[in-house]
Amino acid sequence: MTRVRTEAPYSTELDRQLKAATRAAWAQGDYHRFAKATVWGGGEVLVEACGIRAGDRVLDVAAGTGNTAIRAAQRGARVIASDLTPENFEAGRREAAEVGVELEWVEADAEALPFADGEFDCVTSSFGALFAPDHQVVADELTRVCRPGGTIGMLNFTPTGLISDFFGALAPYLPPPPPGALPPPLWGDEDHVRSLFGDRVSDLRTERRTYLERAASPQAYCDLFTETFGPVAATYAALADDPERRAAFDRDFLAFATGANRTPDGPGAEYAYEYLVVVATRA
Ligand SMILES: C[S@@+](CC[C@H](N)C(=O)[O-])C[C@H]1O[C@@H](n2cnc3c(N)ncnc32)[C@H](O)[C@@H]1O
Question: 54 C-alpha vs ligand 1 centroid, how far in Å?
Answer without folding.
Answer: 25
